[in-house]
Amino acid sequence: MARFKEYYNGEITVVWKPDLCIHSKNCVHGLPKVFKPTEKPWVQVENSNSNNIIETVNTCPSGALTYYINATGIPKTETEKMKEYTKVEVVPLGPLMVYGSLSIKHENGSEEDKQPVTAFCRCGQSNNKPFCDGSHKQI
Fold this sequence. Notes:
This protein is about 15% helix and about 25% strand. The chain is α+β, with helices and mostly antiparallel strands. A hairpin with a 5-residue loop joins β6 and β7.
């Protein structure tokens, strides 16, 4: 069974799964007044507001740190969420079609949400990468 600890401030609960942690230190560098690895408890959610904590937790690359809003309850696991709404279809000689809600993080760090259908380029010729613009038709 996976180990985890929870830290809450009344509004949000931060969940830490030490077995997933790769020690990137994004949390420590992002919000050092909350994430203090030399102290016990090492997560001190009372030292910042929920929005700042959420922003910092979202930078965790391993998923060792997550959160949920206490008013809405514990979220479903990522796997459960994906099963609910993600379908991928490979179109012969065409794009990769993804049906469902997606969050896309671009090379420049910007993020965007897409739904209900997103067409991703597979040919490499799109002028709107990572999305398909129909360039495969000219190849």
